[in-house]
Write a structure and sequence with these properties.
Blueprint lengths: L3 H14 L9 E2 L14 E2 L12 E9 L2 E11 L6 E5 L7 E7 L2 E11 L2 E12 L2 E10 L2 E11 L1
Parallel strand pairs: 1-2
Antiparallel strand pairs: 3-4, 3-10, 4-5, 5-6, 6-7, 7-8, 8-9, 9-10
Length: 156
């Protein structure tokens, strides 16, 4: 038989050495703008791969418009405004940057105004990426005149 003091020390040692029944939070990617977003994750584990990562890079572009066919290059970089935002530099060979947002493999270029070669342009468009091929259809307008073009872009 154990004395009450020995029994108390035994029980305290037993309780301290038993594993906790507390469940650990589910680890995973908690960023909804990621390819590997895990809705069940309660704690971010740093593994997120943002949708926009597949868009970032340098592209060679073949553009088809009613006014002609053009070749040029542009690059896409991440924007600091949000995790789904990108910046396309030299969009449409206008020498200017435009803003876009990505959702999975799609890109949206919201209506925006730029100035290119002294002309004020309004433009918008959308596209998608598959592997290293990005296709964007966009419209631009200046002084009541404009056109719709399609860019076939190959990531370098």
């Amino acid at each position: 038989l154990l004395s009450p003091l020995s029994f108390g020390v035994f029980m305290l040692t037993l309780l301290v050495s038993l594993p906790s029944c507390k469940e650990e939070p589910v680890q995973g990617c908690t960023n909804q703008f990621s390819d590997n977003y895990n809705m069940a994750a309660e704690e971010d584990d740093g593994s997120c791969i943002l949708f926009r990562e597949k868009f970032i890079g340098q592209y060679n572009v073949s553009e088809s418009c009613p006014s002609g066919t053009y070749s040029f290059s542009f690059n896409i970089v991440e924007s600091s405004t949000s995790d789904d935002a990108i910046i396309i530099n030299n969009f449409g060979d206008f020498g200017e940057a435009v803003n876009g947002t990505v959702n999975n493999s799609s890109v949206t270029i919201p209506n925006q105004n730029i100035t290119s070669r002294g002309l004020a342009l309004a433009l918008d468009g959308s596209g998608s990426i598959a592997g290293n091929i990005l296709t964007i259809s966009y419209s631009y307008n200046f002084n009541g005149t404009g056109e719709t073009c399609t860019m076939n872009c190959t990531k370098q």
